[in-house]
């Protein structure tokens, strides 16, 4: 049974005894300093040391996408990205950082289409969708499938995710209310 | 002089100007002057209207994505004539005064439909009576509207807050008048869920998101063969890892047995996980490498299928009629073990305090069950335990099984610390509990173009027997037989019918999974009905209608036929399949359309129809049914759980694949407004999905699939 996973990052997670190190990061435009082991995945740095809990743990091997954040605007699986590979000047954006002043069009579309059920995977889904619309402002269903197939949803909200992305696309293009209706 | 203690007491009493519960909560000292409302003794939600007019509902059904935090307050808001935004929701904590509190069995609206509405209506009547008295006008001239009582003639009004204190002194009406359906403003109407914004901004707090000051993190090495004994532990490498505090022997308490385990305790989760990976544990696995085998289990079920089971119900002499039948067939239908795999893994924080009290933060489906299990395991009284239920990042039955919570209890007691246990995905997939794999042995015959004889022999492990123990060997698991009983299966088999069962035991832990055994037996029943329809030379829809007199079933099937355009002529290589199944008081049917592709098929579309009686929010009924389509298809064409040589063959989502967005078909949901009592919504949409797919594949390719899961890209 084949699985289609884009963005799969495979890193050797062999056990090494390491010492702590200080890392300076920019998370959601704020500078933060953490003192952690260099092999700690960005996910756990964000959650347990920066204190932002919106990014989720689901599988620990980049198979579910719940941990998706942006690194310089690119979606990455933070559970498979050691903090040591994150460049000093890199900009990290999490779910908390995309709609701080006003909800992002993707978040609003998620509300309009009532996408979430349990909602646990939706931070990752939204981060993938935001990244998709940056590079592909007018995505086809095939574009959506390709960009979103790395994000699992056990509640099965895929049909609504597709509709919401089309709706957000319309909003961003300034033609709110066209398409994506229920 | 007012002491601080007295001041607090007075304040709390004025705050709780009026409260309406469904049963007595007089034990609570701070609330003892509040009038308890005894409307029903079955369920015990807790409704408070304070002197500022704030309305609080203690919701007795945790939200795992099924929408209970909208559905339950909607019932109250409707009768109380307030908008949903006005009702503040507090999650119940498991205490007995709140009654049954488990999100399971698609029960939230079914169970609370009457009690919550009655409580709301009683409060409305008491507030109305209070206003009428104050104005000295007849009650009939007063009505409730948007949080106020209004006098029809003069237009003057009083807020609920202004009336709450006096209203609380009235006797509570035992049979308040409920609103008629035609007057509903919220129930049955589209309303956005108020909890969605926090779920799209990262603000929603799930179990895994809770931090408690002073807590340590635990990662647990579970027995690879589930029940092995620890022979030796080498923690040399683990202890070198920065952040690791200690390595301790512990246990995994399951309802039917305990397993040995080792916990790595650390100052942060990553360190605990690294420590776990570096730990070397030798296990004495006894015979589990031979006994823990899904192949052996299924071999035993197929052996049982050759023999007579224990009769649960028989009409006519099925065996004799089957023996002499001219047009007959039989088949075995298999469904696999499955993991629930909620995306939020199992987790819990427990603090066993010095004074013996226990505080818990955990995503549990049933705080009442969790409290019962914690009290039993820790040997404490309910009043010594405080459970803070968080949001659940999916559950599907898994989080009503409390091994992960009791692990945290055990560790906190041993370590005298606040402990957060987090399972890895590998723990979740390899340790169970799982939906049991089951076998349906089916026999049937047709006479004069009609299906007139049917026998379902349900074979496999009993969830009730394993989880609750206490079932006698000849006692039927009520779920196992209930799912295929005449209450749910309304076909009239004119000549003879039989339901029988055989319990095949396994050491693999099993538990309820979305729609429980209906998810297993819908597959066999509805595919085999299809086989019998073809044997009778009938259209599969017509063959079903020929043996159904139940009006609701007929309506569901006829609606499905119309919406899915069942009668249309399809090009060669395309096919449609239908299935219908009743579970949790709701009837759901599905039509799947597939088209041939190389060696397999592609799912083009799924149309689903559900009659769940009265419902709260049509959009949520649709959302749950969409979820059931995806989970039902996943259970058919993605991975099952298998054990070989004692070990689970799947470890994470690369081996236990779930359906992804690129595989999800177009879907369409239709709801029947039957006006019947509310049925379940969270589960009933699932059972017909897999058999509708199997029947569609037969229609498109002539290939009859009888074993799940199968590879849809290569159906042979």
From TrEMBL, chain B:
Domain (Aldehyde oxidase/xanthine dehydrogenase a/b hammerhead): residue spans on this chain: 201-287
Pfam families for the chain: Ald_Xan_dh_C, MoCoBD_1, MoCoBD_2
InterPro entries: Ald_Oxase/Xan_DH_a/b, AldOxase/xan_DH_MoCoBD1, AldOxase/xan_DH_MoCoBD2, AldOxase/xan_DH_Mopterin-bd_sf, N-heterocyclic_Hydroxylase, OxRdtase_Mopterin-bd_su_IorB, TAT_signal
Stretches assigned to coiled coil: none
Gene Ontology MF terms: oxidoreductase activity
Origin superkingdom: Bacteria
Gene3D superfamilies noted in UniProt: Aldehyde oxidase/xanthine dehydrogenase, a/b hammerhead, Aldehyde oxidase/xanthine dehydrogenase, molybdopterin binding domain
Protein name in the entry: Xanthine dehydrogenase family protein molybdopterin-binding subunit
Organism, scientific name: Emticicia agri
Classification of source organism: Bacteria, Pseudomonadati, Bacteroidota, Cytophagia, Cytophagales
């Amino acid at each position: 049974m084949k699985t289609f996973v884009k963005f799969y990052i495979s890193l050797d997670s062999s056990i090494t005894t390491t010492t702590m190190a200080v890392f300076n990061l920019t998370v959601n435009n704020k500078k933060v300093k953490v003192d952690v082991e260099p092999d700690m995945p960005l996910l756990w740095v964000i959650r347990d040391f920066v204190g932002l809990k919106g990014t989720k743990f689901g599988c620990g091997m980049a198979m579910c996408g719940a941990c998706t954040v942006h690194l310089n605007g690119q979606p990455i699986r933070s559970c498979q990205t050691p903090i040591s590979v994150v460049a000093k000047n890199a900009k990290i954006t999490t779910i908390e950082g995309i709609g701080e002043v006003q909800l992002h069009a993707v978040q609003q579309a998620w509300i309009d289409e009532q996408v979430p059920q349990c909602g646990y995977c939706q931070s990752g889904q939204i981060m993938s969708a935001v990244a998709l619309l940056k590079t592909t402002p007018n995505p086809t269903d095939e574009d959506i499938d390709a960009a979103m197939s790395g994000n699992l949803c056990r509640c099965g909200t895929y049909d609504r995710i597709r509709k919401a992305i089309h709706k957000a696309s319309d909003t961003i293009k300034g033609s709110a209310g066209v398409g994506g209706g229920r | 002089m007012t002491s601080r203690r007295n001041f607090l007491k007075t304040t709390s009493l004025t705050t709780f100007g009026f409260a309406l519960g469904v049963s007595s909560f007089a034990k609570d000292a701070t609330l003892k002057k509040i009038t308890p409302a005894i409307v029903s003794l079955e369920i015990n939600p807790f409704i408070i209207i304070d002197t500022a007019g704030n309305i609080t509902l203690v919701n007795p059904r945790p939200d795992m994505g099924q929408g209970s935090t909208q559905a339950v307050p909607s019932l109250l808001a409707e009768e109380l004539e307030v908008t949903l935004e006005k009702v503040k929701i507090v999650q119940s904590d498991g205490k007995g005064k709140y009654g049954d509190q488990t999100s399971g069995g698609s029960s939230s609206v079914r169970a609370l439909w009457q009690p919550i509405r009655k409580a709301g209506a009683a409060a409305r009547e008491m507030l109305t009576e209070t206003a009428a008295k104050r104005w000295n006008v007849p009650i009939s001239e007063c009505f409730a509207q948007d949080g106020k009582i209004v006098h029809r003639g003069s237009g003057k009004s009083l807020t609920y807050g202004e009336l709450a204190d006096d209203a609380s002194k009235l006797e509570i009406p035992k049979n308040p008048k409920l609103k008629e359906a035609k007057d509903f403003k919220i129930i049955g109407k589209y309303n956005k869920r108020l909890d969605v914004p926090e779920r799209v901004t990262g603000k929603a707090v799930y179990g895994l998101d809770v931090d408690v000051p002073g807590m340590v993190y635990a990662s647990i090495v579970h027995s690879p063969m589930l029940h092995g004994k620890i022979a030796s532990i080498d923690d040399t490498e683990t202890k070198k890892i920065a952040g690791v505090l200690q390595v301790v022997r512990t246990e995994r308490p399951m309802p039917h047995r305990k397993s040995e385990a080792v916990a790595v305790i650390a100052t942060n989760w990553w360190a605990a996980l690294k420590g776990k990976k570096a730990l070397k544990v030798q296990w004495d696995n006894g015979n589990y490498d031979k006994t823990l085998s899904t192949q052996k289990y299924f071999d035993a079920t197929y052996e049982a299928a050759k023999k007579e089971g224990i009769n649960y119900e028989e009409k006519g002499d099925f065996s004799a009629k089957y023996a002499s039948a001219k047009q007959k067939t039989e088949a075995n239908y298999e469904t696999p073990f499955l993991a629930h795999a909620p995306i939020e893994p199992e987790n819990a924080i427990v603090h066993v305090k010095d004074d013996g009290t226990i505080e818990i933060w955990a995503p549990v489906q049933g705080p009442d069950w969790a409290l019962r299990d914690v009290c039993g395991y820790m040997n404490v009284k309910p009043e010594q335990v405080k459970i803070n239920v968080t949001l659940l990042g999916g559950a599907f039955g898994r989080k009503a099984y409390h091994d992960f919570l009791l692990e945290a209890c055990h560790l906190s007691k041993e370590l005298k610390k606040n402990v957060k246990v987090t399972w890895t995905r590998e723990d979740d997939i390899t340790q169970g509990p799982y939906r049991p794999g089951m076998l349906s042995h089916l026999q049937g015959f047709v006479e004069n173009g009609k299906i007139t004889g049917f026998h379902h022999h349900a074979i496999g492990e009993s969830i009730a027997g394993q989880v609750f123990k206490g079932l006698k060997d000849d006692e039927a698991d009520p779920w196992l037989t209930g799912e295929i009983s005449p209450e749910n299966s309304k076909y009239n088999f004119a000549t003879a019918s039989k339901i029988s069962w055989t319990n095949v035991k396994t050491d693999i832990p099993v538990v309820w999974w979305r729609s429980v055994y209906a998810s297993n037996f819908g597959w066999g029943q509805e595919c085999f009905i299809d086989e019998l329809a073809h044997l009778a030379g009938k259209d599969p829809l017509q063959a079903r209608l020929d043996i159904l007199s139940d009006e609701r079933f007929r309506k569901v099937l006829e609606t499905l036929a119309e919406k899915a355009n069942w009668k249309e002529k399809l090009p060669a290589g395309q096919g449609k399949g239908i299935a219908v199944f009743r579970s949790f008081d709701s009837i759901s049917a599905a039509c799947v359309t597939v088209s041939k592709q190389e060696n397999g098929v592609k799912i083009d579309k799924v149309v689903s129809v559900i009659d769940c009686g009265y419902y709260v929010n049509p959009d949520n009924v649709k959302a749950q049914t969409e979820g059931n389509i995806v989970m039902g298809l996943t259970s058919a064409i993605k991975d099952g759980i298998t054990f070989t040589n004692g070990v689970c063959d799947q470890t994470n989502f690369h081996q236990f694949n779930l359906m992804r967005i690129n595989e999800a078909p177009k879907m369409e949901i239709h709801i029947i407004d039957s006006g019947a009592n509310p049925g379940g919504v969270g589960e009933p949409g699932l059972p017909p999905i897999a058999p509708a797919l199997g029947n569609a594949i037969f229609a498109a390719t002539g290939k009859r699939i009888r074993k799940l899961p199968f590879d849809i890209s290569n159906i042979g």
